[in-house]
Amino acid sequence: MSAMQIKQIIRRELPAIMREDVEMQQFILHLARTQFADKVETESRFDRLLDEMRQDREAQSRRWTEQDAKWDEQNRKWDENLEDLRRDREEQSRRWAEQDAKWDENMEALRRDREEQSRRWAEQDAKWDENMEALRRDREEQSRKWAENQKVINQMLQEIQGLSRKHDSTIGALGARWGLYTEQSFRSALKAILEESFAVQVQTVTEFDKTGYVFGHPDQVELDIIIKDGLLIICDIKSSMSRSDVYAFGRKVEFYEQEHQQKATRRLIISPMVDEYAQRVAKKLGIEVYSYAEAVEAI
Q1: Which of 7, 183, 252, 267 could form an S-S bond across to 239 if both were Cys, CB 3.0 to 4.6 Å?
Q2: Are 224 and 206 in contact (CB under 8 A)?
Q3: What is 199-295's CATH number?
Q4: 222 and 234 in contact (C-beta within 8 Å)?
């Protein structure tokens, strides 16, 4: 017989057993006593609660009686304080009257002092006008000399700026040409070092970015790829790298991985000139930076 069947039998037979079997009734009441209080205990608790409420009410009544006595005493002290306040106000009014008399005397003295001060200010204004006129003449003379000096300085600056523009144009043209030649030579040399010293294949891949993912508009994307035993290593070989160059290289790698559905094993930057900010960006993007080819860890 299952537990469910036993429970159903108990539910069906228990009411009749409770009515007919006194011992069973006492047994069940004894079991339930730990969960439910009997009538006697409940009435005893109720009586105790009523007694506690009566005692609280009597204590509250005593406190209210004491509070009334304190209020009567406070009202008596308040009346005494009002009388003291009235006397103080009368004394203050008398002092204010004396103060007003002294104030009138001081105001008269102040009026005389103000008239004397006005006379002195008039004399000072006259002297000030004389000094300002002399200062105006000096300033006009100084302005004339300054204008002459500025004319000479401007002529000199124009000559210097002309020479500077000429030199900047010359140096800029030489620097641009030297940078292109140097970067190409650096790329070729490192390609030869990697292929000969590490037995790897270095390829330059040029693909067209139609969506503009790398540069923000459609353009060609150029990458140097190192291939060895099925490993794909994407690197950028340049004469110098800035922070923006590092970000661009990261986007180039992501573009190549999306286009070819192949994850790069390593991402390298090989350049002799990588500034501090570019180094931080490369570390954040998980890009390895090397200043020369021999420093690259074993491939």
Answers
A1: 183
A2: no
A3: 3.40.1350.10
A4: no
Radius of gyration of the chain (CA): 52
Please say whether the beta carbons of 299 and 228 come within 8 A. Answer: yes
Task: List pLDDT tens digits, range 174-216.
Answer: 444 545 455 666 667 667 777 776 667 778 889 999 999 998 9
Give the dihedral sign, CA 64/65/69/70: negative
Amino acid at 174: L
| Lookup result for tokens 């000139």 | 273
Closest among 218, 200, 210 to 270, alpha carbons compared: 200
Q: 3-class DSSP state for residue 231?
A: strand
Spatial separation of the C-alpha atoms in residues 64 and 75, rounded to whole Å = 16
Please report the sign of the dihedral spanned by the C-alpha atoms of residue 146, residue 149, residue 151, residue 156.
negative
Is the pTM higher than 0.85? no
Residues with Cβ within 8 Å of 228's Cβ and at least 6 positions away in sequence, in order, are 198, 199, 200, 201, 299
Rounded CA separation 208/185 (Å): 25
pLDDT tens per residue across span 242-295: 999 999 999 999 999 999 998 988 898 888 788 889 999 999 999 999 875 555
Distance of alpha carbon 286 from alpha carbon 267, whole angstroms: 8
Q: Which of 275, 265, 264, 269 is nearest to 290 (CA)?
A: 269
**If we measure between CA atoms, which residue out of 207, 295, 291 comes closest to residue 255?**
207
Domain ranges of the chain: 199-295
